[in-house]
């Protein structure tokens, strides 16, 4: 059986929220998630509009932080992915 190694959208959202827990610049998120700039823009827009991320401005630098709602979402995503992984038969 061939296993798909590509991440699904929920895994990408998990990765972004995880990186932003301690605060992250857009460039850091871009490199660590291995997304294109356009893809990252779409995910950030979605997460900001859903109040899962917030932007903190420090001088000219924008820092993305996971909100309390984002932390709850991250916890739920990790639980779901863990449950699915435990039930996956190879």
Explain the overall architecture.
With 90 residues, the chain is α+β, with helices and mostly antiparallel strands. The chain has a single domain, classed as Arc Repressor Mutant, subunit A (Orthogonal Bundle), CATH 1.10.10.10. Helices cover 59% and strands 16% of the residues. It has four helices and three strands, in the order H-E-H-H-E-E-H. It has helices at 9-20, 26-33, 37-49, 68-87; strands at residues 24-25, 53-58, 61-66. The protein has a three-stranded antiparallel sheet. Strand 2 and strand 3 form a beta hairpin. Helix 1 packs across helix 2 (26-33) and helix 1 (9-20) packs across helix 4 (68-87). The longest helix has 20 residues, at 68-87. It is globular. The model has no long low-confidence stretch (mean pLDDT 92).
Q: What is the CATH top level name?
A: Mainly Alpha
| CATH architectural type | Orthogonal Bundle
Rg, rounded, reads 14 Å
Q: How far apart lie the N and C ends?
A: 7 Å
Portion of residues in helices?
55-70%
Question: How many domains is the backbone divided into?
Answer: 1
Describe the strand arrangement of the main beta sheet, using strand numbers. Answer: 1-3-2
How many strands, what sense, and barrel or not for the largest sheet?
Answer: 3 strands, antiparallel
* Continuous helix count: 4
Query: Looking at this structure, what is the CATH superfamily?
Result: Winged helix-like DNA-binding domain superfamily/Winged helix DNA-binding domain
Count of strand segments:
3
Proportion in β-strands:
15-25%
> What would you call the shape?
globular
SSE string: HEHHEEH
